[in-house]
Amino acid sequence: MMLKAIPQVKGNYKINAWVFYVLGIMVMVPFHFYINSLDFWMYKLQSNEPRPQPQPKNYIPPSYRTHLFTPVIWDKPSAESEVIRITEAQWTGRNSNETTPPKERSPIQINFTSGVFITFKLSLLAALLICSVWSKRLPAPEKRIQWSLLALSVMFSINTVAMQINCTKMVAWYFAGMLVFASLMNFATGMAVASLYELLSGFSPTHYGFMQSGQNVCAIISSTLQVCLLSMRLRPDIHGCVYFVCGTFILIATTVYFFHIVRNSKCFTYTISQSEGEKKKRPRGEVTAPLSKLIWKIKWYYATFLFVNGTSHVVYPGLAVLVVPVNMDTGSAVWKHVYFVPVITFLSYGLFNLAGREITRIIKTPNNGLVLFVFAVMRIVLVPLLIFCNALPRRHLPVLFNDVEFICFLGVLAFSEGILINLTIVAMPTILDKKEREAVMVLIPFVTTVTTTLASIFNVLINNII
Length: 466
Hints:
- The protein is mostly helical.
- Helix content is 69%, strand content 1%.
- Helix 15 (333-359) runs parallel beside helix 18 (403-431).
């Protein structure tokens, strides 16, 4: 019976591709939802000032960034329609007290994004080390992913409730506690990511690209949700609560989906069983080749992958989120004060990145990885260009580029990253046989994490030097 089912199971390629797409989304939910809720954290981590109390019904929030409410101003409403008109300046809070103007942000606010990112990478590194050293003593990869996703769902739910704590008198302690709790979630994420790469070694090489694209889709989902909530003009605390509740729902829904796939998908379980069967048949202690020789075999692809990730994380997201429009007092105040960072820095970056990843489906991978590495090195010119954009606060370096140029630089950074990452991640497994692939590909998240952590530390230095 099993032999008769094999042709049908092996032909169902799309099911496995969709599973890894969804897995790529779900493992990155905590990270992207933390990073994309930048303005909520700017509100939460502002200096020790009294929090606003609930206002009467004739008060409205001028914008989600404003925590002191402005009275409704009636602009000669007709008796029939009773329309309330509010000026754009009042909606964005230009005539009231904003949470923290970009030029006056505290060190905690300035380094929030980089701090979260470094915490994420260090926790990920610890999880990857455990999976690498004790992989044979741990449960099967699919079981590890299940338990990691369950832990993520529970911890993210607790985190959503903890967001409502009033931390006015203990901002530094709240920030430290938030980083500790984020580390626990990121550790679970690391276990899931390491197990995911181990699981992928038994599937088609193209599935690596699907998983990478899924991670990028998660960034787009979180950014789009953020922009939608901004349009509702909610109070900052309510905005953050709704945002993280949505993230909790996505995590729980995708976790349930993965449990369902593992339990009911013959295609998925068959591929896993085939991979595990091949591992058991191998002679004990069999070694294909030293790891150094395997890496040398794909050296240019490996170098490209690491160089692209490192270059991007020197400036994104830590520096890019500090960039604001050059002329804040002219043009649309709503666009510049409310939508610029969520739309340009997060949403457009994710869309350009995804476009680059998806276009690799029609681009033939170069036979010589050196070509890709040359393009990766050329991207480094984008780092100084972005440093001289209007990132605030800045005390030493001048601003040389305007908003349009910043958008172009960021778009090129994202698009080139998407193309180069997907081309290399798909090309590497095709050069190696299945045994070699398992050893090399599991090492990728570990080495990448070290590279991006160092890049993020360098990013913190840049943020405090400019």
